[in-house]
Every structure is written in C-alpha cells, then in structure tokens.
Amino acid sequence: MTLAVLLSGQGGQHAGMFDLTADHPAAQTVFAEATPLLGADPRDLVRSGGPRLHENRTGQILVCAAGLAAWTIVAAARPARVVVAGYSIGDLAAWGCAGRFAPGTVLRLAAARAEAMDAAAAPGHGLAGIRGLPVARIDAMARARGCHLAIRNAQDSVVVGGERGALEALCAEALAAGAQRAVLLPVHTPSHTPLIAAATGRFRENLAEAPGLRPREGPRLLSGLDGAPVFDAAAGLEKLALQISRTIDWAACLEAAREDGADAVLELGPGHALATMARSALPDARVHAIEDFRSVAGVTDWLRGR
C-alpha cells in the first residue's frame, strides 16, 4: 500500500475535532506544546466552541495540532510507503509529519505564520469558494473585480481572495454564469494572494530561525504550493514562505500523489474537504478522513489492511 496523508487547512474547526486523539498517549506531547501558545488546553478550547475557533492564530495552531496528533496514530501503524502533503496551513503540519520539524516547532511556526498574515492583511478582506466554472473564466472574472486566484482545487473549483464586497459581487456573478457553488468562506484573511505579500517576508525570517530536522528516513514530502517533491530543504522552505501570498495548486498535489502510486488516502485534521477532493482526483484509491473513524484501533486496522 502507498498511503497519501493529506493535512487539512483552516475552516473546519469544531468542538469534536480532538475526540479521537484526546486520550491517545502518543498525542499528549502535541497537546502540551500547544497549550501555552493558546493559553488553554486545545481540547478544552474546542469543546467550549465559539468564534475564537476561527480566529486566524488560534485556528492555525488548532489545525496543526489536530494533524500532528492524528499523525501519531499513523506513525505507530507503520504503513509501508507514505507521501504527505498539506493544504494551506496544513503544508506546515506536513513538514512535522515528514520529520522535518519537531511538533513544538510546527506549532510555534503556526502562531508566527498567523501573526505575520494578520499584520499584513487589511480589514474587510477574505476568501470565497467557487465551483462549477472553468478556472480560466473564474480567474478573469476575479481579476476584473480586483480579486486574486488563491487556490486551484480542480479544473472547475477554486478559492479566490479579495475585498469582501468584491467577493460577494463575484459570487453573485459566478452563480448567474452557471456556477454550482459560490460562497464566502469563514476566513477573514486573503491568504495565498499578493494582498498579503509582506507576510511572506516575515515568515521567511521565522523559518530561517527555526531548528530543522534531517530524518534518515520517513514519508515523501510534497510541497503544498505545487506538488513537487521536497528534496532540498532550503528550496522547500522558500516555497513554504511563498505559498502565503502565491496561488496554491492543490490539484497538482493530488496529481503528484496519484503519480506516486497512492492507492489509499487519509486526511488528518478537522473536516472532510480534502478527502472529498481526493475521491474525485484518485477514483481508484480507498479514501477516508480521520474523522470517519470512531476509534484509534479502527484507524490502525484500516491502515494495516484488516
């Protein structure tokens, strides 16, 4: 089996996002590292709910914590061959799963990344998801309204960043043109667009100061920017900084996983968005999100083909 592990992005945080891993012994270090950054135990924080779960800094830390905690289950199962890739903030979590950063380093970088983005973002901006029109057409419509293509999910599915009023108008125009879906997302930062280019420079400095690891063996790491394998650490870190303010080609990441022979896919983190996209891009693969399972044993049995 070749397993593709996909690390979730923001947007899916919810009260039960740590239910599977909350008491898993191997995940306790992750929760301990996240607690001082959040000012509360992440398990208690999500159970209390509320708007804080979707604040940029809190959300990015929580998503990375969820991915890293779930990874401890995968790592213990020791699947034969693994490729990892992360969506947006999930790209940083993927570096932790690949053994390039320690969990505490990932979480501290997640906080620094969010702070850099918040400092660079002007108020009144955000993201919108549009599906059902060719990418080129959506891109042209977006540019006409001063918006930018943020993420390419598929040939007919994108995320667009810009001023919220312009995004609302763009969604209305897209629906009138035949789009299946066009909605504003619960994100208030125009991520992966040149509107927050200053954040890339600041995060580049954070990455340069972070202690990296050189694992002797481990999963094959794919860049969340373009799906290319990360062989050279310096080049990979540069892409990790650039993806804050450049268009992400997630469709290319899924294609790279397919070309690597992935016949099983597991999404780690809150929600099922990446698993849903993977089912379309890898129709012959067995696909699940970690939240499909009710127990750690269930995940382990699935990974071991039982």
What does this structure look like?
With 306 residues, this protein is of the alpha/beta class. The protein folds into two domains: 2-120 and 194-303, Malonyl-Coenzyme A Acyl Carrier Protein, domain 2, CATH 3.40.366; 125-184, Malonyl-CoA ACP transacylase, ACP-binding (Alpha-Beta Plaits, 2-Layer Sandwich). It is 45% helix and 16% strand. The protein has twelve helices and ten strands. The strands form two sheets. It has a five-stranded parallel sheet. A five-stranded mixed sheet has the order 6-3-5-4-8. It is globular and about 50 Å long. GO terms for molecular function: [acyl-carrier-protein] S-malonyltransferase activity. This is Acyltransferase domain-containing protein. One of its GO terms (cellular component) is cytosol. It holds the Pfam family Acyl_transf_1.
Distinctive features:
single chain; about 300 residues; alpha/beta; Malonyl-Coenzyme A Acyl Carrier Protein, domain 2; Alpha-Beta Plaits; 5-stranded mixed beta sheet; about 45% helix; about 15% strand; globular; transferase; Acyltransferase domain-containing protein; Acyl_Trfase/lysoPLipase
Record field, number of beta strands: 10
Helix content: 40-55%
Strand count, sense and barrel status of the largest sheet are: 5 strands, parallel
Q: Please mark out the parts with pLDDT under 50 across 5 or more consecutive residues, or reply none.
A: none
User: Helical region count?
Assistant: 12
Which geometry do the CA atoms define? globular
CATH architecture of the largest domain: 3-Layer(aba) Sandwich
